[in-house]
Specification:
By secondary structure, this protein is mainly α. 64% of the residues lie in helices and 1% in strands. The longest helix has 27 residues, at 28-54.
Length: 298
């Protein structure tokens, strides 16, 4: 409170100075200009005072090695408490470990630089399409229900499902919270994963996510691999359940502009929603191509 009082005292002096500036004028135009200068000076003084009062504490500092991770957690935990994150979620954060395997995977993403044909071969596109066509038939009622509700046909959903986890067989075995905390600490994409970490902590606070949740190297979870912000925004239930994960994926696509009945190949209206799902151009084209083949096209 002493600092606030001192700031107000300084501001009062600035305002007093502003009120005494430019007191000599010869005509009405000079008077109007003087009053404008006084008001501008007063406004500047108030804004400067408010900026001083509201400047935040230094944010937790990112790092590029395990050495600073524990200190970063302590600092981040303090910031999280100040933002209203509860004790159980903060405790879960403090229990995380530096995930070196996540960092290694993050630095080793080379498949997105392949050509489309190379990428399709590496990801086993032919197997995904063949299995996808079978699942479209055997799970027809589920896919019909999803399409009726969200307007998304089976093809792109099945292609995403197959691409992300091999239809649920490869969901990852990393501690989700440790992976995301490590990436929030790591300087490469700290801002992006800091948002994901806050979302994860909020989900833990609400009991919607377990601190022990397992996921992939970057912290994605479930049959179609959702990060925490997307779980909060588009999740429709337990994402380890295929029906929930596929419904959540359709919900995401609809929220990003998917229009029932419109095409989803490059240049068509719904391709933008696939672009929102993953930023890699080769991935986007692969999903569109496999989706079309699963839906009966060539």
């Amino acid at each position: 409170m002493a600092d606030v009082a001192l700031s107000w005292s300084r501001t009062a002096k600035l305002l007093q100075l502003a009120g005494t500036c430019f007191i000599h004028f010869e005509n009405q135009a000079d008077f109007r200009m003087t009053r404008a200068n006084q008001l501008a000076a007063a406004t500047f003084a108030i804004l400067a005072m408010l900026a001083g009062l509201s400047s935040p504490a230094d944010a937790a500092q990112c790092g590029s090695s395990p050495a600073g991770f524990d200190a970063w957690k302590q600092q981040f935990a303090g910031e999280a408490r100040a933002k209203g994150v509860g004790a159980s979620a903060v405790s879960a954060l403090m229990g995380t470990n530096y995930a070196q395997a996540t960092i290694n995977a993050d630095r080793g993403q080379r498949s997105f630089s392949l050509s489309l044909d190379q990428f399709l071969a590496k990801r086993g596109a032919a197997t995904i399409v063949a299995r996808g066509r079978s699942l479209k038939q055997s799970q027809g009622a589920m896919f019909a229900s999803i399409q009726q509700r969200y307007g998304v046909p089976p093809g792109p959903l099945i292609a995403i499902w197959g691409m992300e986890t091999g239809f649920g067989s490869q969901r990852g075995n990393q501690n989700m919270l440790s992976s995301i905390a490590t990436l929030a600490y790591d300087c490469r994409r700290s801002e992006y994963f800091t948002e994901q970490l806050y979302a994860a902590l909020q989900l833990i606070d609400r009991g919607a996510l377990s601190p022990a949740q397992r996921g992939s190297m970057h912290g994605e979870v479930g049959q179609t691999q959702f990060l925490p912000k997307n779980i909060a925004a588009y999740g429709t239930g337990n994402l380890d359940n295929a029906a929930n994960a596929l419904s959540s994926t359709a919900n995401f696509l609809r929220a990003h502009g998917w229009r029932a009945g419109a095409g989803y190949q490059p240049g068509e209206p719904n391709f933008a929603a696939i672009e929102a799902w993953n930023a890699a151009g080769v991935y986007q084209k692969a999903i569109a191509l496999m989706g079309r083949q699963i839906d009966g096209g060539e």
